[in-house]
Specification:
Blueprint (H helix, E strand, L loop, with lengths): L19 H4 L3 H7 L7 H15 L3 H13 L8 H15 L4 H7 L3 H4 L1
C-alpha cells in the first residue's frame, strides 16, 4: 500500500507508511496542531501516524470521508470514521497493547470532532 503526502504525485510512491515529518506536511494536520499544546503534539502525532498507517488513509482523505458522512441524509452512512476508530481500538487490544497505551490513542477522536 502506498501513501502519498501533498507534495508527492499519486503515481509515485517512495514509501509505504507515514513518518511524523510526512504527516506534518498536511494542511489539516498543521491546523489541528494549532489547537494542541506543544508539549502534547508529539503524542498526538504518533497516535495519528499509527492510525493512518493502520488504515492506509492520509489525513486529507479521512477528513473528506468524515465531511461526506456528516452531509449524508442516511444516518447509517454517518458512522464510517467512528467505526474505523473502533476497529483500530480493537486491533490495538488484539495485538496486546496496554490499556493505558490504547487510551492515549483515543485522543484521535478529537481530530474528527
Amino acid at each position: 500500500m502506498c501513501i502519498t503526502t501533498p507534495n508527492e504525485k499519486k503515481e509515485s510512491c517512495r514509501y509505504k507508511a507515514f513518518s511524523l515529518g510526512q504527516l506534518k506536511e498536511f494542511k489539516e494536520v498543521q491546523t489541528w496542531l494549532k489547537n494542541i499544546s506543544s508539549g502534547s503534539q508529539g503524542v498526538y502525532l504518533r497516535a495519528l501516524t499509527r492510525f493512518c498507517n493502520w488504515c492506509g488513509k492520509n489525513p486529507h482523505a479521512l477528513i473528506l470521508q468524515r465531511d461526506r458522512e456528516l452531509k449524508s441524509d442516511d444516518p447509517n452512512n454517518r458512522t464510517g470514521i467512528r467505526d474505523l476508530l473502533l476497529d483500530f481500538r480493537h486491533h490495538l487490544e488484539h495485538i496486546g497493547l496496554a490499556p493505558k497505551t490504547i487510551n492515549s490513542l483515543n485522543l484521535l477522536n478529537n481530530l474528527w470532532d
